[in-house]
Amino acid sequence: MDNEITHSNRVSPSSSRTAWFTEAGSPHHRLQWQVARTLFVGDSPYQHIEVLETEQFGVALVLDGILQTTAADEYIYHEMLALVPLLSHPHPARVLIIGGGDGGLAREVLRVPGVEHVVMVEIDRAVVDVARQFLPGHTSALNDPRLTIRYEDGVQYVTALDAAEAFDVILVDATDPEGDGPGQVLYTTEFHRAIRAALLPEGLYAQQSGTPIYNPDVLTRVARDVDQEFPACRVYWCTVPTYPGSLFTFTVGSLGPEPLIPIRRLPDEAPTRWYTPRIHAAAFALPPVVAELLPDRVIAAQA
Ligand code: SAM
Q1: Is 173 a catalytic residue?
Q2: CA 65 to CA 275: how far, in whole Å?
Q3: Among candidate residues 64, 60, 57, the one with its CA nearest the CA of residue 42
Q4: pTM to 2 decimal places
Q5: How does pLDDT run across 229-288, given as a tens digit for each residue?
Q6: In CATH, what is the architecture of 74-302?
Q7: How many CB atoms lie within 10 A of CB 15?
Q8: Which CATH superfamily is domain 11-70 in?
Q9: 173, 176, 225, 227: which is the annotated catalytic residue?
Q10: Probe target for ligand 1 pocket from 68, 97, 172, 175, with the most ligand atoms within 8 Å of CB
């Protein structure tokens, strides 16, 4: 496997009940999770990978020291990143996921009626392998026959895409742009331009745009880029307890559909734990402290 984990010291589960995982929300603020057991530690060619069993939030995936997802609250983020765009699109047959190696986003995408073909472009195969082993709730849909997983860089994939392979909806579920991880390239103007070219007419694009409490500049930059590249840009939010500041945003670029209100619904037998049509609409109601970070067009459209 060209993406072998080069250093894997599968640690014996630590018995210490006083171990803590610490993440710096900023240089001046830290978050801590009490760790019952360390389940995995390893280095892929792209990032340092840890899987921790935390007392409060269950199993957690950590990449380069940044908590990515936990078994306890992942449904909030994945339902909101998948269902808001997909239930705003009239026929989301072809969906592209960039990143999403833990599998949670693919699980939510694949349960939406009308989804026929999903490509997940994840740069680090090791993340998918670790998720399959330790995060079974996230990876339950990774064997769906409609899903193709490609292990490559999302920017290169989108840039090289042939127009005949364009998508109805593109979702970016990548690591943050801070630091020197592989996710940096996914927050550039060039990338957003390539995304637009990879969408079919009436296409929708959504990505996580971080927490405005700690990284207002990321949201400002993403919203500005998407607003410049797309006829319409919208920003919505939710709360993810395990993310620094909890308040977390998503930015949508639209070539046609208006994402503010859902035009479709999940079948009644597909229960959600966070998303509802009313939560969908409410998520676009922006507190002034968030709206002030956004381009005037976005503020006006969501006023
Ligand atoms: N929900 C998390 C968040 O909001 O931070 C993201 C979780 S998911 C594990 C992030 C994934 O993005 C990782 O598996 C990482 O390998 C992948 N990734 C980062 N840069 C990438 C790139 N350039 N192309 C494809 N995948 C990338």
Answers
A1: yes
A2: 29
A3: 64
A4: 0.93
A5: 999 999 999 999 999 889 999 999 999 999 999 999 999 888 999 999 999 999 999 999
A6: 3-Layer(aba) Sandwich (3.40)
A7: 8
A8: Spermidine synthase, tetramerisation domain (2.30.140.10)
A9: 173
A10: 175
